[in-house]
Amino acid sequence: MYVFRQKARTIIIIIIFMNFTLFVTVLLTAVTLVVAAYVIAKLIGPRSYNAVKGEPYESGIPTRGSSWLPMHVGYYLFAILFLMFDIETVLLYPWAVVVRDFGAMALVSIGFFLMVLVLGLAYAWRKGALEWK
């Protein structure tokens, strides 16, 4: 009995080590590829620094006045709401595919997820975040 447990522990340790080795290999490969791409871009890329490169450019016409104009906060709020509901659809699709396999617990979890989203939308609507002023 003791020999069997020892063999099982050895097998588990080998599997953990193999998974860790695979993780480290993938991580090192990713870092190597990123560094290689950066170095190649720096070596091959053009090096032309002059005053024209720092100027704002708009459709080939020199800009008049300041190029940095403040944006209304409503644009950012609308973009955040759009991203929130866009991500919601991305998360809702896989759930709809496997809902029959998981049963009632899946319905409860997605119900809570949708409830939080609907409450967030109701709050934003009540505060006037969806109206342009």
TrEMBL record:
It is a multi-pass membrane protein. Pfam families: Oxidored_q4 (PF00507). It catalyses: a quinone + NADH + 5 H(+)(in) = a quinol + NAD(+) + 4 H(+)(out). Its EC number is 7.1.1.-. It is an enzyme of class 7 (translocase). It comes from the Bacteria. InterPro entries: NAD(P)H_OxRDtase_bac/plastid (IPR023043), NADH_UbQ/plastoQ_OxRdtase_su3 (IPR000440), NDAH_ubi_oxred_su3_sf (IPR038430). One of its GO terms (cellular component) is plasma membrane. Its main location: membrane. The chain crosses the membrane at residues 12-40, 73-96, 102-125. GO terms for molecular function: NADH dehydrogenase (quinone) (non-electrogenic) activity; NADH dehydrogenase (ubiquinone) activity; quinone binding. The keyword Transport applies. The keyword Cell membrane applies. It is found in: Cell membrane; Membrane. Keywords: Cell membrane, Membrane, NAD, Quinone, Translocase, Transmembrane, Transmembrane helix, Transport. Belongs to the complex I subunit 3 family. NDH-1 shuttles electrons from NADH, via FMN and iron-sulfur (Fe-S) centers, to quinones in the respiratory chain. The immediate electron acceptor for the enzyme in this species is believed to be a menaquinone. Couples the redox reaction to proton translocation (for every two electrons transferred, four hydrogen ions are translocated across the cytoplasmic membrane), and thus conserves the redox energy in a proton gradient. NDH-1 is composed of 14 different subunits. Subunits NuoA, H, J, K, L, M, N constitute the membrane sector of the complex. This is NADH-quinone oxidoreductase subunit A. The gene is nuoA.
